[in-house]
Amino acid sequence: MQYYTRILFRLIGFLVPFLIGTVEAAIVHNSTFVTDQGRVSLIAGSVGSDSLQKSFLGLHFEMKAGWKIYWRSPGDAGFPPQIRWDASQNIKEFKTLWPIPKRFSVLGLSTLGYEEEVVLPVAVRVLNKKRPVLIRANLSYLTCNQVCIPYETELHLDLESQEGFNSTGGQLIGRYLKRVPSSETREDLSIMSVKSNGPSKESKLIIEVRANGGFNKPDLFVEGPEGYVFEPAKWQSYKAANGGLFTVGYRDLIKTSQKNRSLTGEKLRLTLINGRTAIEHNIEVESAAENDPIEEAYFQSFKEIFFILGLAILGGLILNLMPCVLPVLSLKALSLVQNVSADLKVIRRNFLITASGIVFSFFVLATMLVGLKLTGEQVGWGMQFQQPFFLSFMTIVVLVFGANLWGLFDINLPNGLSTLLGQYSQGGFWDKHFWTGVFATLLATPCSAPFLGTAVGFALGGNILQVYGIFIAIGFGFSLPYLLFAAIPASIKFLPRPGIWMVRLKKILGIFLFGTSLWFVSIISDQLGDRALLGALLGLFLGIIGVLISRKYSRAGASLLLVGISSIMFTPLVLKDAGHKNSIKSAIAWKKLAQDQIPDLVKLGKVVFVDVTAEWCVTCKANKFLTLETTEIARQLNSTGVIAMQGDWTKADPSISTFLKKFNRYGIPLNVVFGPAAPKGIVLSEILVSARVTHALRAAGLK
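The structure corresponding to this sequence follows.
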């Protein structure tokens, strides 16, 4: 029924002028044509930078409320504006460009077009730049509301020379040029394949697309050979947030049998829209395999989500073995030994509270990242370590934990505050065991464990539900050791008995935590410079002295501690140098990451090894000293056939964030090997192994 409705509507569209008697045709010898439904003007302008100015004409349509004109492929009805330039002089080429249209639906018919206002840019090439340019546009177009009215007019525009294009019209044309889909290949948005399951009575196209930064209200327009009608594209997410599938039903109006003609082997013009970005490509249709229907792909996406959740739990569990978390695990092990004789119910409760602190912290982290995503900010795993204020806060927290292990934390506070804190930390849900879990999570975020990068990439590239689900799964995996002890509290009986060794171990762990504070201070120095280093070190020194003398001179100790904390916290605001500098020497001749140079270097036969790192990334440091800086790997990366590039993410850098997204990564380390045999790159695991690095270099083309 809908098929015959389309045919009838097309017929009425052509006959309506004669049926309603409202055909209006006019020849207006100026640059503007005014009607009861709006007006259209012929404008000119130059667009681009001073050195790359290009000349454009523009058909500026302004329609009254409810009226519209059509896109170059109008859909089920209508016809697009048509322009003839035959009478123009001193111009060789005219190329009409079409901004992204809007979908309209009337009586079950889908059309594409523009309402209110649009400029159709027309790229031109002037023959003689010094001679007059005479432009004659013979324009016919259809404007529709409840009825459709065709118009025809001739618009004139005379310019003394090409200099006449340097007018204010360039700004308006440029605004709509930005809405014209790009025909160039883009890294962040692409059409992977087009397959047809036809010929059949229910013929469909299956179009797989990819967006490295995720999708935002995606849409797809299909234009094909004469005689085919394409339904509006139906969208579904697939392969996490990076990929998706469109299905487009189509009909053959020129059937040679009961079935539609197959589109396999034909070329289609596809326009893919993702938010404000759009591309346009001509792609040949492939034949879909029998086991490649859309329903199976949809089912695969559900299986993939459960697989990613499994990776998130496994990555969270392995995170317990990362160097960042070991100080906290040591503290927890120490508390286990101290409470070896405690009631099993108390032990179970304490472990459950620690696990809840971990899961709660990951929930809060997910909430913060979702908030940043909704405001358009770039997000990533460990990105809080790019903020000096967070580093200052962590410096103080770790300093306090270290002082507590040394037994130097007894500072006399005002009576009211002491009473409040005492009530707050006695046996309630939010006691020290809960904050141990929070502290463990804070220290874990600069580390990236195997499987964790894949899970985080899926989450941060996905929707809000995926972010929360995967981050809670990571928290669950991270808290599994605590949950296992809670499930089997009797296993604590096998731990060694308390003794003098515990006092010594506490001192050693305290030294490690003081060292962690120094590490945070060094990161502040890397981000803000030497003056910030001196300010943070002074604050750290005063804080430690304040803690040391607090037992004997409580007020003086508390005052020094307060001054030290203030010095650390205000260092990022007051003491700031020009920028980040990394003075650490390396055995590898690193070059700064230049993403745009990689394809050219690969074409020249070079192998490019990319290392994205940061001063706060503990896993990156481990990779450096255990793998990259070893004699054999350094020799390979310094060889003549290899270009070693390094991206420093110590401070926030949008270009590096974009590079990470290309590989569906939102955290570091990231190591990728490009080469003649691997132009798209070979992504290595988060934990580097020398043999794997060597294999990747050879697989990319290193001889």
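The first strand starts at residue 24 and ends at 25.
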